[in-house]
Amino acid sequence: MNDTKKRYVWKSYVWTLSYLKSYKKEIVFLICFILVTTSVENVIPKLVQILIDKVIPNQNLNLFVVLLLILFVSYIVMYIAKASSNILERSISEKTSRDLEYSIFLKLRQLGFSYYEENPSGQTLSLFNTEVATVLDLYRTHLPSMINHLLFVVISVVYMLSINLYLTMIMIPCLLIYYILGPYLERKTANAFMKVSQKRMVFGQKIYESLSGIRDFRAFGVELWNNSKSVRAFEDYSKDLKVGMIWANIRGSYRRLVSYLGAVAIFYVGHQFIQHQIITTGGFVAFILLYFTAMMRLTFLVTSITEQKNIIYQIEALYHFYNKSIDVVEPSSPLKIEQVKGELRFHNVHFGYNQDETIIKGFDLYVKPGEKVAFVGTSGNGKSTLFKLIGRFYDVTEGNITLDGVPINKLSFKQLRSSIGYVFQDTYLFGGTIKENIRFGFPDATDEQIIEAAKAAYAHEFIDKLPKKYETIVGERGINLSGGQRQRISIARLFLKKPSILLLDEATSALDNTSENMIKMALEKITMNKTTIVIAHRLSTIINFDKIVVIHDGKVAEVGTYDGLFKRKGHLYALVKGQRNQPREEVLNGIS
């Protein structure tokens, strides 16, 4: 690993620890409580030494009572300190975990639409399920454990040195023996479980795809194909988990082997020291008790450090995500339009999703307040992209777009997007009730307003026939409703929101003829005196629009009324003739 990579990895670890800064006082108290607990735990072997050396040989009952009292008080102190440290430890870890999760979630909300279009939902969910969970495990387990073990080992070694320097020195060759294979086994175990984590992430993504795409899998009859992919992912995960458990067992066995080898050496040397009265029997017993506990804690400490090194590599992905640049930034001091009229102007707009390809190339257009405008053209010429630019889902790379004379990048997201109402062909519904989905357009709406909006969208009739009416659960993405019903719910949202600008992607395309006519009448009401821009797939629906904008190669190829452009026999004329000569299915595929 080069130095730059090491510095980046170290930065990711420091970033993770930075969430602890807000809880410095709690951490100081936590360390104090841990010191008390570890000190008492190490005092107990000292009491055993006094019991063996002074109480038993001399039958000193008074001293025995004193030892019992000290032991009793020590246990009470240790219990209080242990309970307090556990409470503080849990409090710090949960608060820190909450802060981290909130900051990651906030980052997810701040990222531009480019992130969501480039990264599948399953991958983002896996990021939360694995990397975030790993960091939370660092707060809840590894850091507290490392502090505990480190303080215990330091205090134990001090006690051991006070008993006998030479016996304590025996730990050095034991540690050297441990370091022959110990770190290697620690790395192998940690790497194995890191692979387990990655395979679990892949398996989780397959499960998500299986659930979210169940309708398509069944429709195409490929459930077995999908199941086989999920099963393979689970088998890979299980195989790596088995390997990880094997390495973990080997690591544990090696730890115990080194501890027992050291114990054999201590017993031999200790026997010689006792015979030559260099150390008392009680002192030896106290030492051996401290040795076993210290060695166990020391190996656990090494394990904790090694595991944290591997955790850092997993944190790196989260750190990289957290430091992603935000494509569309809200202005720090946004301008405000007192009353949005809906005047839109495109000034020499250029835009491309990447540097290698420009989709919008010098687009100029003026839309008067209350004007009904249709965007037409063949696929891939930028009609949907222009909709995204109007709502600042993306920022233009050159030129600007103004709303009522104010550049939209100077407006707050709240004012800009609350002024715009979208209706797409693919309507997203939450898995809640119909009432909740309609209220999405205006969260403070009353039940009466919701019903009125549904009536205006011609949705009330079918809702009223449902067993639970407005309390009917629509299912995930509205799976319990037909396409036309979902579309009418989305239009009902629009009636509640009452935006100044309407952006419609052929809002009636998913409806039958009867419903389509009703929705057309409803849209005529809501679009009255409102700026309306429609992406038209069926050219027959835009004959009476104020302005037809034919978009070709990211530019305005033609602009005018339907009759005027048709007589000109240019781009619109060719599109109309194409639709008349093609079956409906081909037209819908060619005009989008």
Describe this structure in words.
The structure is a single chain. The strands form two sheets. A six-stranded mixed beta sheet has the order 6-7-8-3-9-10, sandwiched between helices. Strands 2-1-4-5 form a four-stranded antiparallel beta sheet, with helices on one face. The two termini are 50 Å apart. A hairpin with an 8-residue loop joins strand 1 and strand 2. 30% of the residues are buried. With 592 residues, the chain is of the alpha/beta class. It has three domains: 237 residues, ABC transporter transmembrane region fold (Up-down Bundle), CATH 1.20.1560.10; 150 residues, 3-Layer(aba) Sandwich (Rossmann fold), CATH 3.40.50; 74 residues, P-loop containing nucleotide triphosphate hydrolases (Rossmann fold). The C terminus is likely disordered. The chain is 65% helix and 9% strand. It is a multi-pass membrane protein. This is ATP-binding cassette subfamily B protein. It is found in: Cell membrane. GO terms for molecular function: ATP binding.
Using brief descriptors, characterize the structure shown.
AAA+_ATPase, alpha/beta, Rossmann fold, ABC transporter transmembrane region fold, six-stranded mixed β-sheet, membrane, 3 domains, four-stranded antiparallel β-sheet, ATP-binding cassette subfamily B protein, 20 helices
